Amino acid sequence: MTPIVETRGLTKSYGPFQALEALNLTIEPGVVFGFIGPNGAGKTTSMRILATLLEPTAGEAWVGGYSVTRESRGVRQVLGYMPDNFGVYDNMKVWEYLDFFASAYGLPRSRRLGLIDDLLALVDLSEKRDGYVEALSRGMKQRLCLARTLVHDPQLLILDEPASGLDPRARVELRALLRQLGALGKTVIVSSHILTEMADICDHVGIIERGRLLASGPIEELLRQVQTSRSVLVRLIADARLGDEAVAERVRTIPGVLGVEIEPLAATLRGAPAVVAMEGTRARALSQIIPGEAGAPPHLQPVPSALPPEIAGGSATDQRLAAAASAAPARLVRIDFDGDDYRLYQLLGELLTRGLPVYGFTEEVGDLEDAFMRITRGMVA
Ligand SMILES: Nc1ncnc2c1ncn2[C@@H]1O[C@H](COP(=O)(O)OP(=O)(O)O)[C@@H](O)[C@H]1O
Ligand SMILES: [Mg+2]
């Protein structure tokens, strides 16, 4: 497939300062591409070059096959660009605003009126058609500006930080709109310095910092690349007989475990009734299923409860243990683990076999934020 955007060695200097250093970027048609990086990374610079509003110092870029330096007319037909700061026009009605831009693109009057209504419906502003632009909320202005970039039905939309300054509700609406544009077959490039904002809008991302592209590709692929090990969160109910060191030692020696961190859990999370209820009976049931060494393996001994005796019930010994246990905090054990799902299943079995009072076992899946931190680590130093 011919890429809709391709840059080769794209470089921009402002005097001695290099804002963009030999950017090589390829974007396939039909994707929603998130251009992610902190402030000053070079996002706006790149987007302005692609939109033919800024000349690169070196290198070249093509949009829809047109060169941005030699075929700017062609490029401008292919793309719609929404800058990060858009001007507001006083004394202009919403429909007039769109009509102005549509005529600037040379659309005949006969086509403009129907188009304006369609665009207003798309961005959910039909009711504001005859209102004044300056009376719109920020989110509405943003959507109107987005409609403006669509008047010539471009294949590619370049939106510079469209979500900045929007309230949460307007962000949700914008997100839905961007997804809708993606579904219409448009390629969308959207920049942001807020990662979490991008994760559920974009299917591809490029991570840029200090004018350099650090990574680019489908989100899942990127996450896989940076995810070298798995992070498993294990919750242990309170057990005063087990010290942190003893827990760490039992975990550390399980095959596949790369690292162990232990932290206390808030008191309110300790021993929920459901957990305690299962301890005695389930431990006994387990003893019949899991073949142990000679005698009862350690994990089959009754696990003390963190709950007060009147709730926990049980024998006098259990109650004494419960009282001792409630002095200790429940624990969260974070395990850095190397292994597939089957090994993960074995890890859980091992934890139980080694007598750890597990009541929660989940994998912490890395997100875009995490990937970004891993990718950009070292660049900052
Ligand atoms: N006209 C300019 N003159 C000098 N430096 C500039 C100019 N425009 C941008 N820069 C610098 O280039 C770098 C990249 O800016 P920009 O592309 O706006 O980043 P971003 O959009 O990722 O926040 C920044 O350090 C910025 O200060
Ligand atoms: Mg910017």
Report on the architecture of this protein:
By secondary structure, the chain is of the alpha/beta class. It is built from 14 helices and 14 strands. The chain has a 6-stranded mixed beta sheet with strand order 6-7-8-3-9-10, with helices on both faces. A 4-stranded antiparallel beta sheet has the order 2-1-4-5, covered by helices on one side. The longest helix has 17 residues, at 273-289. The protein is elongated, with a radius of gyration of 29 Å. Adenosine-5'-diphosphate binds next to strand 2 and helix 1.
Under CATH at level 1, the class of the largest domain stands as Alpha Beta
The helix/strand order is: EEEHEEHEHHHEHEHEEHEHEHHHEHEH
Main sheet: strand order:
6-7-8-3-9-10
What fraction, in percent, of the residue positions are helical? 25-40%
Shape: elongated
Please tally the β strands and state the result: 14
Can you tell me the CATH superfamily of the largest domain?
Answer: P-loop containing nucleotide triphosphate hydrolases
Instruction: Give the percentage of residues in beta strands.
Output: 15-25%
Number of helices: 14
Bound molecules: adenosine-5'-diphosphate, magnesium ion
| Mean pLDDT across every amino acid position | 82
Strand-pairing-aware structural class: alpha/beta
- Terminal-residue CA separation: 39 Å
Radius of gyration: 29 Å
Which residues form runs of ≥5 with pLDDT under 50?
A: 267-313
